[in-house]
From TrEMBL:
Keyword hit for Ribosomal protein: no
Native organism taxonomy: Bacteria, Pseudomonadati, Pseudomonadota, Alphaproteobacteria, Rhodobacterales
Record-linked SUPFAM superfamilies: Thioredoxin-like (SSF52833)
Organism this protein belongs to: Meridianimarinicoccus marinus
Function statement: May be required for disulfide bond formation in some proteins.
Protein name stated in the entry: DsbA family protein
Superkingdom assignment: Bacteria
């Protein structure tokens, strides 16, 4: 699990991240509303919120394994409404989020899957190379260079995402990724069997 105390060791904080990106001018309170990215029936009896970083190896592993089975068994069948919220431990995670969100909700989860699947590859190199690696993922998902440049250069959106991340993680007490808020209760990473047992318990209580 990648932890937020990683931040305390001097790598970055969300406020420093904003400043480092040249986004500290306007007050962070002056942000646009950021939309949650959601899968599943909006009226599903159980809601799961995942907090994950696109640069977190444990998050990539969760999406490659447990998530695929959860989607098939619980999300696609209308039992679970699933919300994916990005957490930013570094600028690369923020850039990945901006690329994933570039195509809107319709493309978000497809791009996110490519980002997680290719995590070991796109995170290699200097910042300019990493940015180009993410653009390549976006182009694979059908986004144009103009769309990607506009999204990655959207300073207002970047600032809003940083503030949104900070507010959400503080409100839900997130200390590492991946973490899950299930029906208002916070849980750490789980394998599929434990996750399924917990969801069955929550569904039975409805």
């Amino acid at each position: 699990m990648l932890r937020r105390d990683f931040l305390a060791n001097g790598l970055v904080s969300v406020t420093a991240l904003a400043a480092g990106l040249g986004l500290a001018g306007p007050a962070l309170a002056e942000i646009t509303e950021i939309e949650d990215m959601v899968l599943g029936d909006p009226d599903a009896p159980v809601t799961v919120i995942e907090y994950a970083s696109f640069t977190c190896p444990h998050c990539a592993n969760f999406h490659a394994t447990t998530f695929k089975d959860l989607k098939k068994t619980y999300i696609d069948t209308g039992k679970v409404r699933f919300i994916h919220r990005e957490v930013y431990f570094d600028r690369y995670g923020l850039w990945a989020s901006m690329v994933a969100r570039c195509g809107g909700e319709m493309r978000y989860f497809g791009v996110a899957d490519l980002v997680y699947t290719g995590q070991r590859e796109w995170t290699q190199g200097e910042p300019a190379q990493i940015a180009e690696n993410l653009r390549r993922i976006g182009r694979t998902a059908g986004l144009s260079n103009d769309q990607l440049d506009a999204c990655l250069q959207d300073a207002e959106k970047a600032q809003a995402l940083v503030a949104w991340n900070d507010a959400n993680t503080k409100a839900d007490g997130i200390s590492g990724t991946p973490s899950f808020v299930i029906e208002g209760e916070l849980y750490s990473n789980m394998n599929y069997d434990d996750f399924a047992a917990l969801l069955d318990e929550k569904l039975a209580a409805k």
